[in-house]
Design a protein that fits this description.
This protein has 236 residues and is an alpha+beta fold. Helices cover 31% and strands 34% of the residues. β12 and β13 form a beta hairpin. It is globular. Bound molecules: adenosine-5'-diphosphate (ADP) and uridine-5'-diphosphate (UDP).
């Protein structure tokens, strides 16, 4: 496999073409942003941790019936993945009120939701990723109703598998964001990343935050928290 031209540089990752038109190479950066790019910084070692944690979780999910884009970890921060056409939605899954939901509904952070809540945001930085519903998604043609049924089922499976795995490690899965894409034949697969950048993880015992909120809210100990998640999951 040969690395070719850069196709895209995002806030947290770069995407490169390869000599195989069905595969792309993802390279994870240490750059961190929050509040739609308003807050910028660097989290030392983040790229390598997010690469390894994402790949570990993607493989766990594959074994549990969720098809993913994962192909092969190439190096500390680079991974080969199946190229997809991204469904332009952030699929947010919530178990406990935090962040924008706590603010929007006036709930105390940490309020346990009586059932899992799914939200969709249209991926558009210029619009600030507005929240949309199934009717908007169908009307705009971002995904079909059948695709959304698949995406919803996969998102709930991810929540169950991740939630159970993390609970055994004394980590509570508060909420997280997923992205899905279509392979050339239309198959829906889980894409992008699953990491402390895209999830809220709280220590079950101390209630300490072990995720990007430490960066967003200037809580300190950002690098240590990312390390702790990798260590509990992968033992290193
Ligand atoms: P952002 O675009 O939000 O700044 P990143 O820095 O994480 O995010 O950039 C990675 C980009 O790659 C995102 O736009 C994401 O949707 C896209 N992407 C993730 N997985 C794949 C894939 N398998 N094939 C093509 N694009 C992907
Ligand atoms: N999230 C994400 N990318 C985004 C927005 C949210 O990964 O662009 C994740 C975030 O880390 C959290 C969950 O989705 O785990 C819910 O985020 P929320 O809507 O509360 O937004 P925030 O508080 O980040 O503004």
């Amino acid at each position: 496999m040969e690395k070719r031209e850069q196709l895209y540089e995002g806030k947290a990752k770069k995407v490169f073409a390869t000599d195989d038109p069905t595969l792309v190479l993802v390279s994870y950066k240490d750059d961190a942003t929050a509040f739609n790019g308003l807050k910028k910084g660097t989290i030392e070692g983040k790229g390598a941790i997010n690469n390894r944690v994402t790949n570990y979780l993607m493989q766990l999910l594959e074994k549990n019936g969720v098809p993913t884009h994962f192909v092969q970890e190439l190096s500390a921060r680079e991974t080969l993945v199946k190229k997809v056409a991204i469904v332009p939605l952030e699929v947010i899954v919530r178990n406990v009120a935090a962040g924008s939901l706590a603010k929007r509904l006036g709930l105390a952070e940490g309020t346990v939701l009586s059932r899992t809540v799914l939200e969709y945001c249209y991926k558009d930085d210029a619009l600030g990723d507005p929240m949309v519903n199934d009717d908007h998604i169908a009307a705009m043609g971002w995904a079909t109703e059948a695709e959304m049924a698949t995406i919803r089922a996969y998102a709930l499976t991810v929540n169950r598998v991740l939630g159970e795995t993390l609970r055994d490690l004394n980590i509570e899965l508060i909420d997280f964001k997923l992205e899905f894409g279509r392979l050339a034949d239309g198959t829906i697969v889980l894409a992008d990343e699953i990491s402390p950048d895209t999830c809220r993880f709280w220590d079950t015992v101390t209630r300490e935050k072990l995720d990007k909120d430490r960066f967003r809210r200037d809580l300190g100990g950002v690098e240590d928290a990312y390390h702790e998640i990798m260590k509990r999951l992968m033992g290193e």
